[in-house]
Amino acid sequence: METQERDTAELGEKVVKVLKTIFDPEIPVDIYELGLIYDVFVNENNDVKILMTLTTPNCPVAETLPVEVEDKVKSLKMVNDAEVEITFDPPWTQDLMSDEAKLELGML
């Protein structure tokens, strides 16, 4: 693996660690385990793009959660820039939650 690819992969892992520190205020599970993060892209300039959803389009944190995600990812030293894109395609369902999240919420 080339150094650039390794650095990009390493940064992707750091981004995921940061995402796991952000919680949906209504559900005591982080947004990554909830399945709200659809994809994390890191390019060779260390720009990060996060494709995520919300539990519902009228989610009370629709305005603040994407900003929190962007700010926390931008705070990583290696990150040049970060952008969050919200999508509702596909819509979020409980099936997207990790087993860990389902266990935490007593669904397993």
Alpha-beta content class: alpha+beta
- The chain-level mean pLDDT equals 92
Spatial strand arrangement across the major sheet: 1-2-3
Q: What is the H/E order?
A: HEEHEH
Task: Give the percentage of residues in beta strands.
Answer: 15-25%
**The CATH superfamily title:** Fe-S cluster assembly (FSCA)
Backbone CA Rg: 14 Å
* Main beta sheet strand tally, sense and closure: 3 strands, mixed
What would your notes on this structure say?
The chain is an alpha+beta fold and 108 residues long. The protein has a single domain (3-89), classed as GMP Synthetase, Chain A, domain 3, CATH 3.30.300. Helices cover 31% and strands 17% of the residues. The protein has three helices and three strands. The chain has helices at 3-19, 65-74, 99-104; strands at residues 37-42, 47-52, 81-86. Strands 1-2-3 form a three-stranded mixed β-sheet, covered by helices on one side. Strand 2 (47-52), helix 2 and strand 3 form a beta-alpha-beta unit.
